[in-house]
Amino acid sequence: MLKEINNKTLIRKCGAGFTPYSFDLNIYRGCAHRCKYCYALYSHKYLDSDKFYDDIFYKKNIDLLDKELGKIRGELVGIGTVCDSYQPLEQSLKIMPQVMQYFIKHKNPIYLSTKSELILRDIDLIADLSKVATVYISISITTLNENISQKIEPNVISSERRFEVARKLKEKTNAFVGIHLMPVIPYITDNRENLEGILSKAKELNLDYVVAGTLNLYGETKKSFLNFTDNEFPKVSGKIKEIYSSSKSAKEYYLNTNEFVKKLKNMIGFHNKCSFKEWEKNRPEQLSLFN
User: In this structure, what are the phi and psi dihedrals at residue 199, rounded to the nearest 5 degrees?
Assistant: First the structure.
């Protein structure tokens, strides 16, 4: 069900301190991509709904951006950091072109993450913004195995098509274009062949960065995801539960994966070409894997 939010603000100040952006903008709440690992399932309780994948809320008062961007004066804004700004409903609602026009007007930098090829609809606007402000576009890719991908993110285009989106953005804009290799899921996507393959493809396309992150399980997401692995990956579900049985074992898994990704990057010769200084300085070890 599609529901409009009578929003009084659009841009939110980030308080976590571990992201490269100080503010974020999410025009949608809920997501039809139906990714089984989505960490944002909890957020719908604030909207009096328990149907995160079906009840999609959207913010309509986009004109508020004119005033709000004037106040933050060039601070980096994360777009689609909770729910994808280019999920299916955006095809008809066409909110993002309005958003991009205001960012161009204010020459304001963005950090945008998506799994959708719909972003290519707005490639001219992204190109225009990248001429006057810093633009980071991150394409999320978890696995090169399409059978696994269809299970863990059933309403998302193939990884091959997502790499094609990254290639076109890199070729036709001045944006920094990279890959969100996340989440890395124990016993499902963390094998060497998969991680090395994604890194190698990023290097082949001359992308600017790869940011990896391990699976985060808590609250509703933990319950939902482990029920899913019980059904779809029963041979490894118990092992995943063991890793996420305590913060200590989850952190140990993070550290081991962190070192593994670093070694693969060095072996392949892929190094981030752009810096996320504030993110790197403040990042919590449990969330992000950097060079």
Answer: -65, -40
